[in-house]
Amino acid sequence: MTLLVSKVFGAEKLHQALLQRPENKPLITVSNHVASVDDPLVIASLIPPGVLLDAHNLRWTLCASDRCFRNPVTSAFFQCVKVLPVSRGDGVYQKGMDMAISKLNSGGWVHIFPEGSRSRDGGRTMGSAKKGVGRLVLDADNIPLVVPFVHTGMQEVMPIGANFPRIGKTVTVLVGDPIQFDDILNVEGIQHLSRGKLYDAVSSRIGHRLQELKVQVDKLVLEQAIQLRNHPLQTTERAAGILQQVDWESFGMGSYIFSEDESSGKQEIQAQSNVGLPHSQEPTSDGCFRVGFSYEGGIASRIRGYMDPTELMGFAARGLFINRRANENPASVGQVGPLRAWKQFLEANAFQQWNTC
């Protein structure tokens, strides 16, 4: 079972920073903090397997000593997974921050949550970035590459008050472009600014960028939800189009399904998706759509049930391929089984249609 399903946008930006940055160029990643398992679950979904399995190049991160270093057992564990202790309220000039800077000076990767603590409202909003991240950027020997990302959905994986993560939830992650600080570093009269104000300027820029990404990732999730809600209807419409290509005579149903079109003299399937059928296009509770046919004088007018769109497509595909094979070789009609016909149909039509959606 998958603990979480991740949808990542912009992962190549982080991959490039991890694998292609200049030698000894330090890297800082910053993100919002929603659940206690944001790190490692979200980070594990972002990085290439080669980095995930390489302990030397894996990230360092910071954790409050009163949470991760309560006793010798937890202290030993978190030290093994490259976690550095920091003490709440001890400011930016403390041992844990000094250790993080030393890792950066070695060209390492440090991940930090600039908010300093988890979201108090389940990830709906973000707090301001603390001054500590500004110190990491400015006090390293070389200005680090700073890559931001924001995620949503971890509030469902590990809700507030939960002791164990929930399985199979979807997390959406958006990775942004590296953040630039050249204008802050090169501003005239910089020598007259206090170090603390420079820290504030850097952390403010990081926080602002994370807020922008938060708006974008929330918009992505909303768009995905709308597409998912509309997908069953789109599938049903494609199935209806396939039905029109079926040779219903091969099923012995032509006299029941077809009606004469007086204006053109052609036989056609009159698929009434909603005309005269109450709730014909409303999704049912199990994700299927009500599918009905209305033909005067035909038995199909009595067919009003529930059918999954994929089942409908499979049924249509069988008739479609029987028709095609009959045109090529009438003697081979009886040799086409439903499984083989369905396979041929998918290869020839369905996959191409789905890929263009």
TrEMBL record:
GO biological process, one term: phospholipid metabolic process
Topological relation to the membrane, as annotated: Peripheral membrane protein
GO molecular function, one term: O-acyltransferase activity
Gene Ontology CC, one term: mitochondrial inner membrane
Alphabetical list of SMART domains matching this protein: PlsC (SM00563)
Catalysis: reaction(s): 1'-[1,2-diacyl-sn-glycero-3-phospho],3'-[1-acyl-sn-glycero-3-phospho]-glycerol + a 1,2-diacyl-sn-glycero-3-phosphocholine = a cardiolipin + a 1-acyl-sn-glycero-3-phosphocholine
Domain Phospholipid/glycerol acyltransferase, chain residue ranges per copy: 27-154
Alphabetically ordered keywords of this record: Acyltransferase, Lipid metabolism, Membrane, Mitochondrion, Mitochondrion inner membrane, Mitochondrion outer membrane, Transferase
InterPro entries: Plipid/glycerol_acylTrfase, Tafazzin
Signal peptide from the UniProt entry: none
Entry keyword Acyltransferase: yes
Localization terms from the record: Mitochondrion inner membrane; Mitochondrion outer membrane
Protein family (similarity comment): Belongs to the taffazin family.
Protein name: Tafazzin family protein
Organism: Liquidambar formosana (Formosan gum)
